[in-house]
Write a structure and sequence with these properties.
single chain, rod-shaped, RlpA-like_sf, Expansin_CellWall, signal
Length: about 210
């Protein structure tokens, strides 16, 4: 009898041990700790974008053009075309002209426009007056070509005009009663003065 009791006790203990072992140590079904959650690791692959910068190079081709031209001073250069007139230098007396000469109506001289003079302070010092051998204009009228020295300044003349002394006017055979001839062609014979587009002051004589 005692032996049976011992066996029964052993069997009960075995059953209890089996029950506890199947339940796990201190865990109950339904407990949150019962569920093992495996954390999913998300792998993110970052796309690397490479920006290519294109630099546009503009090549400028420079073509050097050499222009060959004849340099002239003033309108038309050496050859001019304009009006010609005459004026009294000093009738029966001696008058000082722009170049400082004491001339009269018997002097064969010509006055050219103020636009060719560059020494406003004292025209006596202008290259027109000081050039070696004097400066001349050359004009042809009715087959007669004459060189006349430039010794005076004409304040009322356009750049292409000439104003002759009575003696020079007569030498060409021009008519005193006409007084003005248009479109007369003439040229600087031995020196081309520098054209002055902005002359300051105009004393006719110096």
């Amino acid at each position: 009898m005692r032996f049976s009791t011992v066996l029964l006790s052993i069997a009960v203990l075995i059953l209890l041990f089996s029950s506890v072992a199947s339940a796990g140590p201190g865990y109950k079904k339904g407990d949150r700790r019962w569920k093992t959650t495996s954390k999913k690791t998300r792998t993110s692959t970052r796309k690397t974008s490479t920006k290519t910068t294109s630099t546009k190079t503009t090549s400028t081709k420079t073509t050097k053009t050499t222009s060959t031209s004849t340099k002239t001073n003033g309108p038309g250069g050496a050859t001019q075309s304009g009006d010609v007139t005459w004026y009294s230098v000093c009738n029966g007396c001696k008058g000082y002209v722009a170049c400082g000469d004491a001339d009269d109506d018997s002097s064969v001289i010509v006055a050219i426009s103020k636009y060719w003079w560059n020494s406003a302070a004292n025209p006596n010092n202008d290259a027109i007056c000081t050039v070696s051998g004097q400066m001349h204009i050359k004009m042809t009228y009715k087959g007669k070509t004459i060189k006349v020295p430039v010794r005076d300044k004409c304040c009322g003349c356009k750049p292409n005009d000439l104003d002759f002394s009575p003696a020079a006017w007569k030498a060409f055979g021009l008519d005193f009663s006409v007084g003005r001839y248009h479109n007369m062609t003439w040229e600087f014979a031995d020196y081309i003065p520098k054209y002055n587009g902005n002359p300051s002051g105009c004393p006719q004589t110096g």
